[in-house]
Amino acid sequence: MESVPAVIVAIDGPSGTGKSSTSKAVAAQLGLSYLDTGAQYRAITWWMVNNGIDIADPAAIADAAGKPDIVSGTDPAAPTITVDGTDVAGPIRTQEVTSKVSAVSAVPEVRARITELQRSLAASAAGGIVVEGRDIGTTVLPDADLKVFLTASAEARAARRSGELKGADVQATREALLKRDAADSSRKTSPLAKADDAVEVDTSDLTLPQVIACVVSLVEEKRAAR
Ligand SMILES: Nc1ncnc2c1ncn2[C@@H]1O[C@H](COP(=O)(O)OP(=O)(O)O)[C@@H](O)[C@H]1O
Ligand SMILES: Nc1ccn([C@H]2C[C@H](O)[C@@H](COP(=O)(O)OP(=O)(O)O)O2)c(=O)n1
Fold first, then answer.
1. Where is the Cytidylate kinase domain (predicted)?
2. Tens digits of per-residue pLDDT, 21-37?
3. Atom of ligand 1 nearest to the CA of 14
4. ipTM metric
5. Structural domain boundaries of the chain?
């Protein structure tokens, strides 16, 4: 039987463009592992908040960056995230963590630590992996076989996000989302950016199944060309 070589897929883009839903579905469909790098930054932020680290003090964050043990489960059917053995999948999605994650993830020591975890997970995924985040194509896995950069209008993204957070005001969600994009795009260390060789897909007017099909066919094209 012919074996299919492991494929590494990097999916980046701002909040609400469909990275997590698309990456999980593509990985499940193609039998690949899946890594949500945003969950890792949220997990380290949750730990900082829980341990009384001053989020306004980058030196304090840098000093503590090596302390928490963050473990990601990469099965796309049931991704997991633990900190020092505690399941934090729920607590990392609170408004408090969301409002603080950009400040924590801007600290170079935090990025170095999490980037190392990401590279080691990608290297050990024998069947290949889909890794989604903000700097995967530019910094974490610059040699990925396929890089996709998802975009969508602020209106579409805010409508999607406020649909998730029951009862959330679309305008307030839009503002919080744009504020986080601006912080993530303007930080010095590996900001949110499209890699030069990434394929850009605007998802504003596409359904989720259409985006998934588009990325699956991009992966299949890459595989066929190898
Ligand atoms: N193309 C799409 N059309 C409509 N809704 C979408 C689309 N892609 C994703 N969504 C929905 O938008 C929300 C945010 O998607 P998610 O995958 O979490 O985005 P990201 O990981 O980029 O923040 C989810 O509720 C998801 O189901
Ligand atoms: N590769 C990554 C992934 C996420 N981050 C940071 C910046 C993001 O605002 C936060 C949270 O990412 P996450 O993907 O969970 O955010 P959303 O699902 O888009 O709300 O983490 C990062 O700096 N680098």
1. 9-220
2. 999 999 999 999 999 99
3. 22
4. 0.98
5. 13-216
